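Good morning N.,

You mentioned wanting to compare the apo and holo forms, so I went ahead and generated the holo version with PMV. This is what I fed in:
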Amino acid sequence: MIRTTTRAAPNFALVKYWGKADDEAMIPAVPSLSITLDGPEIEVSVEPAGSEATGDDVSLDVAPVPEPWRDRTQRFLDLVRARSEETGWAVVKARGGPPPAAGLASSAAYFAALAQASSRAYGLPLDPESVSDLARMGSVSAARSVPGGIVVLDPADASSGRLGAHTIFPPTHMGMAVVVAVVDPSMKPVGSSEGMRLTRDTSPYFEAWTACAREDLGRARDALEAGDFAALGRIAETNCLRMHASAMAADPPLVYLAPATLAALARVHSLRQEGLSCFFTVDAGPQVKVVCLEEDVESVRDGMQGVTGVQDVLVQRPGPGSLISPDRES
Ligand code: PMV
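and this is what came out, ligand included:
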């Protein structure tokens, strides 16, 4: 087993994944399209545990380590060992990245880095498609943090349970930036896996949500192809609110949006009225991600900083993904 350290960053979806077609095989019910960011990067190292070890040792530099992360990491490493000739226990250490389970795509960054590090440590294939496919088994959206730039994960591409995400445009395409308005970085009460299961099983709007997804993907691809930022924004905002509408109609209802989230959405609308090129998206948590053109990034950041209830504002750019390259591993 080779000691390996890798890094990966979150990705945010403009056309969202919400709901699984197959829980065991981790196949999404809908295609999704996202931007892989350049940070905040999480660093994950995987190394062999000592001969005394009776299990994997997982440590994150956040306290307390959320219990589901430990269990998910354990299950993930069991899968890695089942695919490998190496069967030893591992020591996994993770540092940095966004706060966990707050709707900031921490699990996407974590499992993308873990998939890459454990593939190398346990001698599994290192081609991007295989690493992305493996990352998906930790968290579906993690498959999208392996490639860089603008990325698609489409269940129509699945074959024999294998499915990886791929880049459709490079990070520099259209000169976009992402401003993250942090409303509340604490852990969300209902995680995304449980939230999407509830939505699928109880929301009368889940069917309508899945029915729109493929068309949203096609329209987003067309807007990207045409370099039409305003059209991309309309599609992304509508897709995001459709996802939340389907979740709110679950029983019990899932409301991830806080009052400050709505205030931030209203601010994005008014910044647009003032002539700035920007649009929002919101995941399973109250934070608001504002995609804008590079030339407007300072004005958008200032605008979001002034929203009551917004605690922090971060600026990220589209990033290169978490593919292993000599300067990104040790
Ligand atoms: O991959 P998960 O289980 O973390 O789910 C991610 C779901 C959303 O962030 C809400 C949407 C998406 O496509 O990233």
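The domain at 4-172 is CATH 3.30.230.10 (Ribosomal Protein S5; domain 2).

Happy to go through it together on a call whenever suits you.

Best,
F.
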